[in-house]
Design brief:
two-stranded parallel ribbon, mainly alpha, single chain
C-alpha cells in the first residue's frame, strides 16, 4: 500500500491525472461521474481503493477549498479547457446569429437574444473560472516544495518555542501552586490558633463544670468546718463556765474555810453573873 502525504505535491498531482485517465479510458466512466469522483478524491477521500485499482492512502486530505482548487487545476483545466473554450465560441456564434436575425427582422423575438446573452455570459464566467485556476508547471511546483518545507520547519520551530513557553508557564504555575498551598497551610494554622484562643476565652467566661463541682465541694467543706468551729466554740464556752464555776467554788471554799478557822480561834466570851 502506497502512502501519499498530500495530493498538492508533485506525486499527488501526477496521481490525480493518472486517476482521471484510468476512470475515463480504462473504466469507461462518464465525464460527469469522473469529475464527481475526482472532486471527492481531491477534497475528502483518503483511501483510493474504492475508486481505483491503486492501493493508495492519502494521509492529509486537502479539504473543500484547497481540494477544489486542485481539482480545477489538474482535472477541469487540463482536460476540459478546450471543450469549455469551444462552448464559449459556439455560444458567441449563436448569439451573433440571433442578434443578426433580430436586427434584420427575420425573427422578432427579443427573448431569444436575451437568453443568448445570458448563456454567453455564463459560459464566459465558466471560462474565467477555468482560466483563473490555471495549473502551475511541474517545475514551479518543484520550486514551491522547498519553500513549503522551509515553512514547515518554521512552523515546527514556532511550535517548539510555543511548547517551551508553555513549559515555563507550567513551571511558574507549579511554583505559584506550591506557594498557595503553603499559604493555605499557614492560614489553617492561624485559624486553628484563633479557634483555640476563642475556646479558651469561652471556657474562661463560661462556667466550667469541673470548677463548679470543685467549688461546691469546697463550700461543703467550709460549711462542715464552720459547723466544727461552732461546736468547738460551744465546748470552749462550756469548759470556761465549768472552769469559772470550779474557780468560784474553790474561792468560796477558801473563804468559808478561813471564816471557819477564824471562828474557831475566837475564845468564848463569859458573861457576868
Amino acid at each position: 500500500m502506497t502512502q501519499v502525504e498530500t495530493l498538492s505535491n508533485l506525486q499527488g498531482r501526477a496521481l490525480v491525472r493518472d486517476l482521471y485517465r484510468e476512470l475515463r479510458f480504462e473504466r469507461r466512466m462518464g465525464a460527469v461521474q469522473a469529475l464527481t469522483s475526482l472532486w471527492r478524491i481531491c477534497t475528502t477521500e483518503q483511501e483510493l481503493i474504492k475508486y481505483s485499482r491503486r492501493e493508495v492512502v492519502v494521509l492529509h486530505p486537502l479539504g473543500i477549498w484547497n481540494g477544489t482548487t486542485l481539482w480545477m487545476q489538474e482535472v477541469v483545466n487540463r482536460f476540459f479547457y478546450s471543450a469549455i473554450n469551444a462552448f464559449v465560441y459556439a455560444g458567441a456564434a449563436l448569439l451573433l446569429v440571433a442578434v443578426g436575425l433580430n436586427r434584420t427582422g427575420v425573427i422578432d423575438a427579443p427573448g431569444i437574444v436575451v437568453a443568448g446573452i445570458v448563456i454567453e455570459a455564463l459560459l464566459l464566467l465558466l471560462l474565467f473560472a477555468v482560466m483563473y485556476f490555471t495549473p502551475p508547471d511541474d517545475g514551479e511546483v518543484a520550486e514551491l516544495q522547498p519553500s513549503a518545507a522551509n515553512g514547515t520547519d518554521e512552523l515546527l520551530r514556532e511550535l517548539g518555542e510555543i511548547g517551551r513557553d508553555y513549559a515555563a508557564m507550567a513551571v511558574q504555575l507549579e511554583s505559584i501552586s506550591t506557594s498557595l498551598t503553603d499559604l493555605v497551610e499557614r492560614q489553617d494554622g492561624l485559624v486553628q490558633a484563633v479557634r483555640e484562643s476563642v475556646n479558651a476565652a469561652v471556657s474562661a467566661v463560661a462556667p466550667n463544670p469541673e470548677l463548679m463541682a470543685s467549688m461546691q465541694t469546697t463550700t461543703a467543706a467550709l460549711d462542715r468546718f464552720a459547723s466544727s468551729v461552732d461546736g468547738l466554740g460551744r465546748r470552749l464556752e462550756a469548759m470556761e463556765r465549768q472552769e469559772v464555776e470550779r474557780l468560784v467554788r474553790s474561792e468560796l471554799e477558801k473563804i468559808l474555810s478561813r471564816q471557819i478557822l477564824r471562828a474557831d480561834d475566837t475564845p468564848p466570851s463569859t458573861s457576868p453573873d
